[in-house]
Amino acid sequence: MYNCRPCRYDCDRIEGIEDIQKGICKVHEGIKCIREGLEAICRCCMCDGIKAIRKGLCLVEEGLCYIIRGAKDIDSTSGCSGKSSFQKGICDLKEGIMCIKKGLQDICRCRMCEGVESIQKGLCELENGLVDITEVLDDVLAEREMNKKRRCEALDKISDMCRCIEWDGCAKDC
What we know:
Layout: H1 15-42, H2 46-77, H3 83-108, H4 112-168
Helix pairs in contact: 1-2, 1-4, 2-3, 3-4
């Protein structure tokens, strides 16, 4: 007896990709805020700078959550394609967040040079992570498009073959 269950491989699922794209945008917005905050601190506008960095940090952390959720969805539907690169990008984002938090603590303790240096290092880590994740996402999208095209071509061939059989009653004449 055939047991019909929903397929656990949802081939056309795009929420994972959408989550990653949304996460990339959030991280990008967060980086902008952190840069603005760093510039404000360098102009001795400490309160404005710290607020902007905190806002940016929240956006980056929110974006990271979206990226992790999306990466899990993509891992479950597309095999191992790009899994290690996603992980590397995620690790870079986490490292960047830690550096920025450390820099913020240093600034709040009046250790300006160490704080600014830590935040700059964190920004570099965030940008590296974002680049890795964006490149992997592009690869995943290209792979899905290629598979979709290949699947369409195969289905067209099958459709043509079946049409010959139905119309002619004999496939060898086609």
